[in-house]
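Hello forum,

I keep getting stuck at the same step: I have a sequence, I want structure tokens, and every attempt I make locally crashes halfway through. Rather than fight my setup again tonight, could one of you with a working pipeline run this one for me? It's a single chain of 281 residues.
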Amino acid sequence: MSSLPRTPEVRQTANPLLAALPADPRVVELGQPLFTGMPCSPNHPGFRMTLARRHGDMVRPDGGSASNEVIVTGGHVGTHIDALSHVSHNGRLHGGVDAAEAQSGGAFSEHGAELTPAMVTRGVLLDVAAAHGTGTLPGGYGVSAADLERAAEEGGAEPRPGDVALVRTGWARHFDDPVAYLGKESGVPGITEDAGRWLAERGVRAVGCDTTACEQIPAGAGHSVLPVHRLLLVEHGIYIMEHLALEDLAAVGQHEFLFLVAPLRIVGGTGSPIRPVAVVA
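Reply #2:
Ran it on my machine without issues. Output:
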């Protein structure tokens, strides 16, 4: 970012895309680090990384050496985005696509992860935890449309068509404790169908949350039913991002920002790891 023009005067003569950036841009990471043993939904294979070659295993004639790794992971592990092939309802994907036909051969011929777009757009932080005057919402709490309205009003930014809406529950504070974060006994806070409809009505392009499922998980219920996934992915074609890290963004106190994310182009996949960022003033 240091090569960008840093004053409004210079930006007026620069590329208009650069002119839209803050005069002194700061990049805020919105993704969790990937490490062996990190929390993972019980519905997905976990993340594993180990060194395949270590320095000294092979030394070149000039004394040089190199190390590399092997990574094994599911597409919905860590900070990731759900492709439209991820969820079906009554055998149909978004747009009425026959799920059985689309997945024939072991990879999706329609709605695959390679079609999930990179996004450079307006992002809005809906800090529901802050709107409730707490650092973390209680386990199993259902975020309602009224909660999102309140968060938007207090943050001074409401989602518009094409935006990415990020819902903060504060649950990411438990990320280093897999048992607490997955919340099997306590439940996990998240948006309800009511809140999902509120977001869909505003025409957002994607919704993200700082939890494992993006939606309310009642205590003891697990991921048995995920109605918000059906509502957003199947009915409205709205992408879902999970396991976001929103604490640093909340600390900045800026609820409207430039949002950037680029999924991996996994042909026929149902999701992709991502590294989303917010560019703030």
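Confidence is low (pLDDT under 50) at residues 1-11. If your local run keeps crashing, start a new thread with the error log.
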